[in-house]
Amino acid sequence: MLKFKDMKKVPEHLIPSRAAKRASFDAETIYPILDEALFCTISYALDNKPYSIPTSFVRYGDKIYIHGSVGSHFIRELERGIPVCITVMLADALVVAKSALSHSVNYRSVVLFATAERIEDQQAKLDSFEWLIDKIVPGSWNYLRPITESEIRRTAVLAFDLGEASAKIRQGMPNDDAEDKVLPIWSGIIPLQTQKLPPIADETSKQIQMPKHLVTVDL
């Protein structure tokens, strides 16, 4: 992970065009956001047309990993090494101000610029599968039916280096203009929360005891 102690050395494309003071370029800020987020959006240009694809991902070390079918047009294009922009956002609260255009959102976000590296080693692919599955549903990897060699062959794994990543965070109450603060209009924040609800069995699992890793899921 690149650490820029001098803002003058930060590449221009990593510096937000607005509220640059909210930006961070250190692993201690970026990694927790990536580890909490379940999904990212990968954007790229092809034949002068923009594409933006949401997908699940996992961070391990200084890279993030995604999986997809080897026949996927999306995956095959990324394997060519075209530049991509990957974004992640966690919304923490709606910021309700006294004026309409002072409303905002408390959020934590990461923007990453990179090119894809295709992972070929079978053990490395297996490791990335385990990292992602246990991120999405913690404790499930060792419970599930073992993955097959055919499934490994049919699944591509792409890694993206975090060398050009930046975080941007907004927290706190509304930033109302001084003349608006005295108005008798309510202002503050409305907290947001993404919550896992109790699991629901499908038709094949209604008579099967729920595994411990699902019973103890953090609701």
Describe this structure in words.
Helix content is 19%, strand content 33%. The protein is globular. The two termini are 32 Å apart. It is α+β, with helices and mostly antiparallel strands and 219 residues long. It has one domain (7-93, 104-176): Pnp Oxidase, Chain A (Roll), CATH 2.30.110.10.
| Strands, total number | 11
Looking at CATH, the homologous superfamily is: Electron Transport, Fmn-binding Protein, Chain A
Largest sheet: 7 strands, antiparallel
Percent of residues in β-strands: 25-35%
Give the number of domains. Answer: 1
The CATH architecture designation is Roll
Low-confidence stretches: none
CATH level-3 fold name: Pnp Oxidase, Chain A
Summarize the helices and strands and which ones pair or pack.
Layout: E1 23-24, H1 27-36, E2 39-46, E3 49-56, E4 58-60, E5 63-69, H2 73-79, E6 84-96, E7 104-114, E8 116-118, H3 122-136, H4 149-154, E9 155-161, E10 165-170, E11 188-191, H5 212-215
